[in-house]
Amino acid sequence: MFMSSEIIALTAGLAAIGWVNWYFFLAGRRPEEAHHVPIASDAPDASISIPVTGMTCAACQARVQRQLQKRAGVVDAGVNLMMENATVTYRPDVVTPTQLVETIRETGYGAELAPEDQHALEQQAAHDHMQHGEFEDIRNKAIVSGIIGAAMMLIGMPGMGAAHMARPMSLVMMLTTLFVMAWAGRHFYHHAWTAFRHHSADMNTLIAVGTGSAFLYSVAATLAPNLFVERGIAPDLYFEPVVIIITLILVGNAIEARAKRQTSAALRGLASLQPQTARVVSAGEKESDVPVEQVRAGDVILIRPGERVPVDGEVLSGDSAIDEGMLTGESMPVEKRVGDRVIGGTINRTGALTYRVTTVGADSTLAQMVRLMRDAQGSRAPIQGLADRVSAIFVPVVLSIAIAAFVVWVIAGSTLGVTSPLGHAFAAAVAVLIIACPCAMGLAVPTAVMVATGKGAEAGILIKGGEPLQRAGDVQVVVVDKTGTVTEGKPAVTDVIVINGSRWSADELLGMTAALETMSEHPLAEGIVAHARSRGLALAIPESFQSVTGRGAIGSVEGHSVAVGNPVLMRDYTVDISPLSADVERVTGEAKTPMFVAIDGAIAGLIAVADPIKPTSREAISTLRALGLEVVMLTGDNQHTADAIARQAGIDRVVAGVLPEQKVAEIKRLQQGGRIVAMVGDGINDSAAIAQSDVGFAIGAGTDIAVEAADVVLMRGDLRTVPQAIALSRRTMGTMKQNLFWAFIYNVIGIPVAAGVLYPSLGVLLSPVLASAAMTLSSVSVIMNSLRLRRVRLDS
Questions:
Q1: Among candidates 440, 442, 436, which has minimal Cα distance to 207?
Q2: Is 171 helix (H, G, I), strand (E, B) or coil?
């Protein structure tokens, strides 16, 4: 039979638990938020990234994200704790960016739109400055509070009663503790109160309630100790534990802030590549150094050996070798001559170059790379959904557990043989509040995404977000395009064959074909034009030109109709190519591609073009197969040539003679049965197939990093970066799962231990100070585990 005091404690505890759940789960819920129905709209969706301040844990992140997703007109919203921003896809005719900012502010967190004229490099610089300032502030507070805590340890031991301590000294400790709480720990209480007013709770709530209740208990024991003594309760003081708890949490926050900066080291390094000034050559060959922000497209820039290229441009004079490794991962410098492009942020190694500026500011390659990486690191991996769902209810549940632990200890403490049930109840409740850590759950996935995308960027692998990073590890089939992916993409003419009895000579056939192909951008066309010019042939200007996708080109040159292309094009124009059958069999057997030429409606001959495979292709295919992946080559080339290339590269399965739309159909066929398919192509001719695939790789994009269809942009033309990206994804997924496991298991084990479940059998009761140390270690351990990805070797 319960005593009256026990009944009161039980009733009060149940009421408190009920109030906590009502206040945080029901009272703050608006009627219109119960069911969010998307509003139909014909306007194209827009996307925006909004900086959010004041978030400290996964519960904060979940709160902001939940409110944004409930807002009418929002298609999707993701909030990233690491990048401290919200990425929102919305319908601009329904909701405006200003209204989205107000929605975030209504949750109790700060938000404002980034300046419209601020490009990615400037945004990153501002973010880095803010992070550094945050680290400095937390570190200083941790040092000062740590010194105060050490001094207090010399004065009294934890749990010392007021009767054993001189009253003046107790008052000094009370005031000192109040100073630490009001200065070093102010943000805990400020954020907790802000969250409370918005019917929300986060990590700050747990810290504020735990340390605040310990402080108030100690104040009462200091000012009115007799109230405790008369009721048989020891008037223990917890001033020192409060200061030590705040110190340990601040130390953990400082380590966490520093580790966060390390996770974005690759992005910070990329953003710092741009020089501060550029040497502009004005009229009269006068040179002057101007801030890079003042450089405009069309300006002429001079760079000398050893200097960094300030902005993108096209070489006007000079020869040099440019080290592009910091952007593409390429180890060897790239030769640059007149007409070649140079990229801002790269290093000029040998000769002097004069070049004309082509793009600046937000349009520059470096700014686009930083923007792409910021977007990727601010995105969310699907695996994070579990942590989000737990975080949304975590803090109210922990508050309920703390209340329950307090009530149980008050009721059962005497039965367990403790001399001060209320003191043990109080210590257990505070320990539960302090040890609970939603931060680790919020950091488990984003830290791994940030480190992995940064690591990939160092190797020239730009992964466009957490979702493709996760999907890449699940790929089962890799489909590769032939030209420019498996092969060099720089075809060279090997044979010019004229049919017997033709009125055209080999040079005339080559000249007319090359004249037409000057209007084409296809690699095979470029090879034909280069060969004609190397022979000194004068190329006429075509009177007309039409590209026939996947087949070739037709047009008019010097009054003659000319058609150049594959057998399908010839068949479309009823041109008989059978006179060239023997020649076709010979050249295709030698892994050459025949380009048929018809003049004035009759077959005139063919031009054979060889595109050798890249030296690294065979190794890349072998690595993909070693990873357990099926490799398929798709090409619009003929079957004989494709088979010959596939044999050299070590590819077993080839689908030849396919048009762009047929490539899409083949990808769909491979996806049947739920298989995850990756497509690797140049990002332009293969854009439809890349878009259809589960993970699209644009290889050899070079400076064209804004390949919209691709999920992963490979800056180099090295096929080995594909298995590197897949291996990085698998390693990252392993790290994410480890982080989530430890974040969950820490709370699953730590909270019950703090509540005192081991006391009846082992006599173990965790002190609030040890609980704060454990909480600090949980977040730091997750970040440090993610940082191990920086040591992953992506051998090229």
A1: 436
A2: helix
In one-letter notation, the amino acid at residue 349 is R
Region for 77 from its dihedrals, namely left if φ exceeds 0, alpha if ψ lies in -120 to 50, beta otherwise? beta
Tokens of 231: 């009721």
CB count in 10 Å sphere of residue 202: 31
Whether 112 contacts 101, CB under 8 Å: yes
The CA–CA distances, whole Å, from 142 to 132, 192, 726 equal: 15, 20, 41
Q: What does R_g of the chain's alpha carbons equal in angstroms? A: 34
Q: At what angle do helices 186-197 and 167-183 cross, to 10 degrees?
A: 60
The region that residue 756 occupies, defined by phi over 0 for left and psi between -120 and 50 for alpha, beta otherwise, is left
Residue 717: which of 314, 332, 321, 322 has the closest Cα?
332
Q: In the 8-state DSSP scheme, what is residue 526?
A: H
What is the rounded average pLDDT for all residues in the chain?
A: 86
Among all chains, which residue has been given the structure tokens 């945050």? Answer: 134
Residues with catalytic roles:
481
End-to-end CA distance of the chain: 75
Give the span between the Cα atoms of 676 and 686, in whole angstroms: 18
- The predicted model scores a pTM of 0.78
- Distance from C-alpha of 75 to C-alpha of 90, rounded to nearest angstrom: 5
Cβ atoms of 119 and 367 within 8 Å: the answer is: yes
Structure tokens at 734: 């392993």
Listed residue (60, 130, 67) closest to 102, CA to CA:
67
How much is the pLDDT for 44?
83
Q: Which residues pair with 602 in a beta bridge?
A: 599
**Neighbour tally for 37: CB within 10 Å:** 7
> How many C-beta atoms lie closer than 10 Å to residue 41's C-beta?
14
Name every residue whose Cβ is closer than 8 Å to that of residue 22 and which is 6 or more positions away in sequence. none
Rounded to whole angstroms, what are the CA distances from 502 to 164, 318, 604? Answer: 116, 46, 6
- Report which of 555, 550, 481 is spatially closest to residue 516, judged by C-alpha positions: 555
Residue 207: closest CA among 195, 220, 199 = 195
> 183, 407 in Cβ contact below 8 A?
no
The whole-angstrom separation of Cα 413 and Cα 522 is: 83
* Average pLDDT per 10 consecutive residues for the chain, totaling 796 residues: 62 77 66 49 81 85 88 90 87 93 90 77 76 88 93 66 61 93 93 86 87 90 82 77 90 81 74 88 84 92 93 93 80 86 90 92 83 78 82 87 90 77 85 86 87 89 90 95 85 91 92 93 86 92 89 93 93 92 90 92 93 91 96 88 90 88 90 92 75 88 58 88 95 95 90 91 84 85 91 76
Amino acid in the structure at residue 770 = L
Q: Which residues contact 143 (CB under 8 A, 6 or more apart)?
A: none
By the 8 A CB rule, do 416 and 759 touch?
yes
CA distance 306 to 479: 41
Residue owning tokens 């490799």: 631
Amino acid (one-letter) located at 148: I
Give the up-direction half-sphere exposure of residue 789: CA atoms within 13 A in the CB hemisphere.
37
Q: Are strands 677-681 and 477-481 parallel, antiparallel or unpaired?
A: parallel
Task: For residues 381 and 645, give the distance between their C-alpha atoms in angstroms, rounded to a whole number.
Answer: 37
Closest residue by Cα to residue 211 from 776, 775, 779, 769: 769
Q: Are 493 and 527 in contact (CB under 8 A)?
A: yes
- The CA-atom distances, in angstroms, between 191 and each of 134, 206, 377, 399 are 16, 11, 26, 17
Predicted pLDDT at 156: 63
Q: 80 near 379, Cβ under 8 Å?
A: yes
In the chain, the largest separation of any two C-alpha atoms, in whole Å, equals 123
Q: By the 8 A CB rule, do 564 and 599 touch?
A: no
Cα three-residue angle 294-462-467, rounded to 5 degrees? 125
Nearest Cα to 557, choosing from 598, 589, 595?
A: 598
